[in-house]
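Structural prep section.
Before we set up the soaks we want a predicted structure of the protein with iron/sulfur cluster in place, mainly to decide which crystallisation condition to try first. Input record follows.
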Amino acid sequence: MLNFFDLSFEEIAGRLSDLDTRPFRTDQVLRWVYTLGVDDFMEMTDMPRALRESLAVLWDLRPMREVERTQTVDGTVKFLHILDDGEMIESVLIPEEGHNTLCISTQTGCTMSCAFCETGREPGGRDLTSGEILAQIVYAVRYTGERLKVRNLVFMGMGEPLLNMDSLLAALEVILSERGLDFSPRRVTVSTCGWVPGIKRLAAEGPDVNLAVSLNASDDVTRSTLMPVNRKYPIDSLMEAVKAFPVKARRRITFEYVLIEGVNDTREDARRLKNILQGVPSKVNLIPCNRNYSGLKAPTQGHIRTFQEWLLEDGVLATMRKSRGQEIGAACGQLRAAVGGK
Ligand code: SF4
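Run finished without errors. Recording the tokens verbatim:
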């Protein structure tokens, strides 16, 4: 059976027209699947039974299976899914007032080997198909019971999204289409470790979603130690690509900055950050480093606040992210550690 979510609207329409010539069938199916989150063709009761039976053997609406679900006291839910070939991926649903943010994966592991990240600890894995990316969202929609309850999407789970560009672009088409999941591009953020060719391609070919860059250091030596991608694309070349990225009015590029005690948390770091971000509509998101295998740790809460104040004094918009889901390994840089990494 084919993963339904791997199919473009045109492919769905083409196959459907072989079975039923009425032109409205495609939109009927799309509405059941993407708007109502139905995962069984037999429940699509406004279509003839024979057609539903044919579709049920043709297309798979449950291309992955949940093998584990963990929840913290603050309501953060981590789903562990197993894919057709036995690979596993995680997505994390983070509740906020009145809505949720879903963090999704784009690869089953990661080759980028960032020092603070559990996913990249054992490089490997494979790219997800666009259908496997979409299935994570549809699964969360079914879990919350309503498409509108999942308001924000962040591509910050396992993997580097810009290394899986074809699947990412195909998934974004469905995510943003009114016939698909109908998300506002303002509510979708693609986060990269700084894969410069990907930033350029997203700028040229992608829709106007938000960009987040995992920066984490203010100089090349430190950044190359924390993030090997910096040896290939140092800060200057990264910022050149970021400056060319189209940013809509009243929007900003987010720079994630994992604060690590004694590594990237000095007054000098804050000053250099200001210089790096000069001329970019930006926001720095400070994230306390989660406890991890490499022994890196966050500065004290007091020091994190001081670092934020230094940035604010220098005119850099900086927010502090409360680390959510840490107790279940669902926080930034912790995904997949519990199942052994890739
Ligand atoms: S932080 Fe992102 S890019 Fe870096 S190793 Fe982890 S998953 Fe890969």
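Observations: Residues 110, 112-114, 117, 119-120, 158-160, 193, 333 surround iron/sulfur cluster (CB under 6 Å).
Flagged for discussion at group meeting.
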